[in-house]
Structures are given as C-alpha cells and as structure tokens.
C-alpha cells in the first residue's frame, strides 16, 4: 500500500517538475532584449501601429501580450511584454483573430515573419518578399502547443 502512495506522489512531483520546466526554460534561455532606446528608435518611421491587450478571447493568465507593435516594410518592433513561453512565432494575418480557432482557420493564408525569443520587447526584420500591405494583423502564436498568445490589428 505504501508503494502505491509513493508512486502517486512521485508521479505528481514529476508532472509538476516537467510543467515548470517547460514554462521556466524559455525565460532562463531568452536572449537579452533590446533596450528602451533601441526599441524606440526601431519604432520610428513606422508605417502602421497597433496594440496588444490582455482582454482577447484567446488570452488567459499564461497566454497574453501587452504594448504597442510598429510595422514598416523592413521592420516590426514590439514595445511591451509577452507572457513567456516556448516556440513563439510572429505571423502576419489577413484578418483580425483573437483565439486559437480563429487563427487556425486563417493560418494557411498568413505568413510567418520570424521567431519571438524575447518577452520584453523585440525587433524583427521583415524577410524579403513579405509585403505588410497584404495583411492587417500581427499574431503571436506558440507553434509547439498550438496556443494563441495575442494579436493586434494594425490596419
């Protein structure tokens, strides 16, 4: 009987440890983000701007973003915060969505711009061949778990 109790308690401890590891590892391995002056300079001359908010249908206490997003034909700058997590990607989408189901429905029509590895602001170069005019919304998506993080309509 005692071995069953130990098996259950050790199993619970293992599950909690793995879950904490998945959540904490991206925080520990995240590169140092740009400083405030670099972010502000990156946002200057933006063609479009939008805002991330926590009140979207697909956002919760583990999946959220706040702050502003600025887009130019060559650069995307986020000044704000994202909930830390693994395997985040920034997409440009043809229409505004605010949850997993909405993004999965238009993911094939969206374009992946790059990886999001910093949670306190970021600057991404827009790859050649991507026209920001062809899209209306920035979406942050967790590719590994298929989780919606946040979105902002910029036009």
From TrEMBL:
It comes from the Bacteria. Pfam families: DM13. Residues 50-155 form the DM13 domain. Keywords: Membrane, Transmembrane, Transmembrane helix. The chain crosses the membrane at residues 7-28. InterPro entries: DM13_domain (IPR019545). This is Electron transfer DM13. It comes from Phaeobacter italicus. The lineage of its organism: Bacteria, Pseudomonadati, Pseudomonadota, Alphaproteobacteria, Rhodobacterales.
């Amino acid at each position: 009987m005692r071995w069953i109790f130990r098996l259950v308690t050790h199993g619970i401890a293992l599950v909690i440890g793995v879950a904490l590891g998945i959540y904490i590892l991206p925080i520990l391995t995240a590169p140092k983000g740009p400083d405030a002056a670099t972010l502000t300079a990156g946002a200057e001359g933006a063609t479009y701007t939008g805002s991330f908010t926590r009140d979207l249908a697909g956002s919760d206490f583990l999946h959220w973003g706040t702050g502003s997003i600025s887009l130019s034909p060559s650069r995307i700058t986020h000044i704000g915060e994202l909930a830390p997590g693994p395997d985040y990607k920034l997409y440009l989408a043809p229409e505004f969505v605010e949850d997993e189901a909405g993004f999965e429905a238009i993911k094939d029509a969206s374009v992946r711009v790059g990886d999001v590895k910093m949670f306190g602001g970021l600057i991404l170069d827009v790859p050649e061949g991507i026209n920001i005019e062809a899209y209306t919304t920035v979406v942050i998506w967790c590719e590994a778990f298929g989780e919606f993080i946040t979105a902002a309509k910029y036009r």
